[in-house]
Amino acid sequence: MFDEMFGTDENIREPYRQYQDWFKSEDAARLHKKSAESEAFFRRTGITFNVYGREEAAERLIPFDIVPRVISAREWSRLSRGIEQRVQAINAFLHDIYHRQEILRAGRIPAELIANNDAFLPQMIGVSPPGNIYTHIVGTDIVRTGEDEFYVLEDNARTPSGVSYMLENRETMLYMFPELFAQIKVREVNDYPAKLRRSLCASAPPACTGKPVVAVLTPGIHNSAYYEHSFLADQMGAELVEGHDLRVVDGRIAMRTTRGYAPIDVLYRRVDDEYLDPLSFNPDSQLGVPGIMDVYRAGGITIANAPGTGIADDKAIYSYIPEIIEFYTGEKAILKNVPTWRCAESDALAYVLDNLEDLVVKEVHGSGGYGMLIGPAASKRELAAFTKKLKARPANYIAQPTLSLSTVPILTKKGLAPRHVDLRPFVLVSPNRTEITPGGLTRVALKEGSLVVNSSQGGGTKDTWVLEE
Amino acid sequence: MFRQLERSENISRLLDAGFRIALTRSSAAESEWASVVATTGVKQLYEKKYDQYDAANVIDFLLRDKTNPSSVISVIEGSRNNARLVRTALTREVWEATNECWMTLKALLSSPVRTRELPEILSTIRHQSALVRGALHGTMLRNDIYDFARLGTFLERADNTARILDVKYYVLLPSASFVGSSMDNVQWETILRSVSARGAYRWHHQGEISPISIANFLILSRQLPRSLAFCYAKIMDNLTYLEEDYETRHKCHDLAKTVRSRLKQTSIETIFEDGLHEFITEFIRDNIALGAQIEKDYRFNG
Q: Tell me, what's the ipTM?
């Protein structure tokens, strides 16, 4: 097992050396006190989230661990090159798949994988989004298994969340341990909202004549990520709107204000495709704006991310990303994919059924750790139930080996103890540039040995430090 | 006393902004600390005592040093002493909040402040000051005493905002060598941070940051509670109430009116054309003169 602080042999790894020097000189009682204080800090900021299906806990805090996750400048440079390559290939793929579909004609991806996929939106065929950008914001999930072993777990090209934690975790650390930042040179993340705004404005639609008006579309106060929606709107100086605040006025999307309806140029929407427009998608949706897709097609508004980007981060497409990168960039993928069995293929299904107790099985369209099976941790009964599901709808699943995820220590009552982590850096794409904020969201499984880092399943977060050169 | 209370709050904001730069941009730390000290107007005193600007010295000097009449501990002590002198003029709640502010900060600042405690201490200073202000708003009669309390607050606040601009005006000038550099962005952000107006500015200008609009915001905005124009609108209000109450118009009324009209009639473009620095220098001079005139007209010193 690879620990990012202590390596494999209890020798401190270079990126953590300065931190460890500080840590050793600190009084344990003070650190525990600080750790408890951090909770009060988050409560005061109001950075809470809601868990679906749990009435009694309407507002919960994601546990925060005060030991940072540290990434060296060298590691970061490789990661960011790999992520940039991936994100650019995904944008090229999306444009292609909604236009000429060259990649299908070349036989690099089976056509039925697209045609039978719910994430593929026929309404987007032939539509070119402003600036030709599909994924304005991407949150690439990355896991590590060794010194130089990084894998991309998911591409999150729809509406990735968690960036508010990246920012608030840093603020909390700056507040609690200012002296650390005086000693260790950590790259800043706090200009993310300004960059997000700039990036969104750079993709303004043809109908925008003056300074672009940006708004954040939230499903509302009951959404699990509502805090983040309000936070980003506030930090960008953009309006926070819900579907019922918006309507079509003179071929534009306009928001209700105290001075009448005012047109919006760029809508950063945190509402899923399905609910975006009851006239085009789910007719029962109360969260969207009737007619927004027509305005979009006519160049009256930028929707970020574009509708239909889900086809690129679909778990069935995921296994083809290395081919997608080669097809559009002519380069080999810098970051590896996790080996994936597509259960739609009969050989793969047979292998998966035979080795279920060693594999992780995921729903193709699932997210947030819901509806997945972790073979090694599952009971006989769970395995049997999942076998049935697999046989009934094989195309609905993919399987991957259980990776030995790297660990980073957390502070426990008994001192430092290793826990598994993943990493979600945030990428901004505009017609002029692709920017990756040096840092990201590190999620950490708080239970010993657990591999599930999702906050909805009891995971926590850490501040993520990218060191300066 | 409200003048002093306002000052403690402003020092806390300035230190907060300076500390932030020092943490995240170590190369700029020394010059940042120097400008924090210059902004509080105690540069000479500081340089008599210390040879260089480092975090520990500046923090100690501005928070705890009793030989510095503008340090937080000095102004809070002064504020509390003044409150005792005029105890009968204050409501019980205002007096208790002031006294508690003093007790809390005295205990907090009794030993040298370590860097790692600074953020917490600075936020306590602002909290305590907010409590006194809240008690004032909620319980005091709107009589001449209240008017004088408000005059003190806004004279001090205007002075502070003007001094921030005075020390930092060069980063707001459209000089070719600076434009667009990331250092500039940090400096502009510090200016906004030191008047707690980062969020407000973001809203007002939809995220776009430019020196001329920052200057406009801090000098001429009628909405920003720490802008020069806002402070003078309030000063004018309170002086007018006094005029009505006492049925006497003094020289200070005319003085304030002149400054206010200048802020109302000018535009930021004109200010830049005529020279931002000259404008600020003149403003600071007039503001001091107005303070002195009010003291004279209302016989504060016998």
A: 0.74
